[in-house]
Amino acid sequence: MVIIKIIKLSKDLVIGAWSLIKGLVITLKNCFIPAITLQYPAQKQPMTDRFRGLVDLHPEKCIICYQCVKICPVACLAIAHKQENNKKVISEFKYNMELCCFCGMCQQVCPTSAIYMNKIYEISVYDRDKTHINLLNPGKYIEWLNTSIK
Amino acid sequence: MNTSQTKDICTEEFLINMGPQHPSTHGVLSLELKLDGEMIRDCTAHIGYLHRSMEKLAENRTYTQFIPYTDRLDYVASMNNNMGYVMAVEKLLNLEISDRAKYIRVIAAELNRIASHLIAIGTFAQDLGAFATPLFYCFREREKIIDIFDQICGNRLTYNYMRIGGVQFDLPKGIDEKIKKFIKYMRSKVDDYDWLLTYNTIFLARSKHIGLLPKDLAINYSVSGPNLRASGVKWDLRKDEPYLVYEKLEFDIPVGENGDSWDRYKVRLEEIRQSLKIVEQALGALPEGDPTVKIGRIHKPSPSEIYLRTENPRGELGFFIISDGSAYPYRLKIRSPSFSNLAVLPELVKGLKIADIVCILGSLDILMGETDR
To answer: What's the ipTM?
Structure first.
């Protein structure tokens, strides 16, 4: 009985040691590959061409068709317009970043590519008021581009 | 301590709450365990912590507006959810899509299946005590898929790529080279996982013959996906009810023997290999054409009802839509695989140790996002 126990134990030990060695071989292999992590605040990954960041607007291209407002699933866009010399002029274009789900359907539906999504991805803010953005203000995202923390 | 003393000790069942903030419950799931010592006598799963009322929300959204919401059902396999929903609406509208769009959908869905299975394997290994190594390896490989998706559709998690009638963008230039490179890389890595995990003594001891799910029980509980196949039932909607171009592609359905936790892991690992095969074939046979479609803001199907199911990484994802002829669905029911897969958990854990519940939960690979919807 004792001999059988010893044989079984030694067999388990050998199998265990073998799987340990196998595991360590994989770990060792990975020791020699170059590092793939980026040192984040110093190094930043470039965003791809189709990246969907914050919603942005070319006010001169906008024809006030309300397509983006109608397609937005979470109703984060709000437009108002007024008549000037029988012509529509935007008076208000508000974007609630807090609600936005970054689906990008507004930029796809826009017939004149007036509304688009920029490459800003560091979008946390301390103040809730800052999530309500006036898209007609040309300097709206300057603050966001310069620092990581607002 | 002699036997006469132990007889006098009165023990009673102990109730313990596992979750909803437990790291091993894969989301906000609460398990109420009835314990006898370390033995589990009973288990009740309390769900609903991630309930967002998706089905009701769908009734107030147009068919197009609901696509981003499907991203949030099974958030590690958004492409497959997108595809399932969009295909259901296409069936409702009797819409034909271009061949190139079909192939692109297959490529996207299979890549996402690999990413999802990588998370399943990584977290399963982590739950069993292989603390960080396999998880980080899996996430490293998943990162490459996410990079591909980032180039294709512009987001890393909630893709919103599929459109009713096609896809949002055509594949960008040079992406096929990148995918081919990834397939080659991934094949060697799957072999690495085999070395590192599959036949590891500790891994086998923890997962083999734990959580046995017999064939008939799996079918009775309508378990689907890799969990069903691990029990030995050869049922895969890609083969049995082919949609898109799956009938033109060659692949096998991996099937397990016993239906234990190890089998469920092994089936997932094999499915990664098969998915790589599918992506390679689909990429080789990619036809020319325009897969993109102008986003239709309003679709008005005729009053009817349809049910369409697709094979998600976690199982059978079904969408049941009733249309009353307006631009909004009258009712949208989502049949999510995780819900049924979770329902079988109490049957599996009875009589096992408390440490095994973590193993079984990891091997079932449930996701609370689609369980609660």
So the answer is: 0.83
